Amino acid sequence: MRVTENMFIRDFLFSVNGARGRMAKLQAQIATGRRVSTPSDDPDAAERILRLKNTIARNEQFQSNVADAQTMLQATEQALNRFTDMMLEAKDILTRARSGGRTRELGTLADQLDQLIADAVQVANTRFNGKYLFGGVQTTDPPFILAPDRSGVTINPNGITGDIKVMVNEGAPQKINIDGQEAFQGVAIFQELIAIRDAMRTNIPPSAAQFDAVDGYGKYVASQAGRAGAMLQSLDMHGELLQRQADQLTLLLSADEDTDIAEASVNLQKEELVLNAALSMGARVLPKTLLDFLR
What we know:
Layout: H1 5-32, H2 43-98, H3 106-124, E1 127-128, E2 131-132, E3 144-146, E4 153-155, E5 165-167, E6 173-175, H4 180-184, H5 188-200, H6 208-257, H7 261-285, H8 288-294
Antiparallel strand pairs: 1-2, 3-4, 5-6
């Protein structure tokens, strides 16, 4: 086949433009740090990148869920520990009330217990981030209502039970609350303390059974604080797992998406050599006037 001058010129231009295009692509990869900017750069890699980015987005949402749940459970554990301390204070009041020769002090001790009851209800109504911790799924209303004359405690008529769960991984919902029924056995603790207070105001010291009941309630609330701590530990483990997954996903994404600067720089130098060689060869082979025209 006869190779005409036009064919030679066309092939020459094709080679030069191809080298320049590859150089431009490599320069863009080095400048942006991204090997794949459009699907056409590498269709298979682009598909993997999209899938990885979606997985990373879900992982980030799980991590956010875990972080929010951790702070909520920390607040729950702190409130329950505070309530447990208050039950110890109540035991101390009852111990003094039961001591012989202190009957005249029962009224004063009853007043101290009365204030402790009000404080305990306030702790049971602890709010975190605008939500009541011990209201179950009813988080907008106080779970416990102390009568104005402090004669009794009632629960939110809409309820104080129900589990709040968040997704901490694919298909892994986790409970992150302890409701008011679980935490305080409803109003049982408060009613027991109120009954003891009222009896002390009539100069009747607390009985051994009442003392044991308060002691039992304190231990029970302490066990619920332990539950909150165990739930928090579980979230900590999920958080560590999610972070490891995030690190692995980031490495996989980088392998497909990021530019190997050293490799791209070497390839760019190669393309520059190819282009310079093509231009040099064209300058020797093509007529001077034609090459000037092409430039």
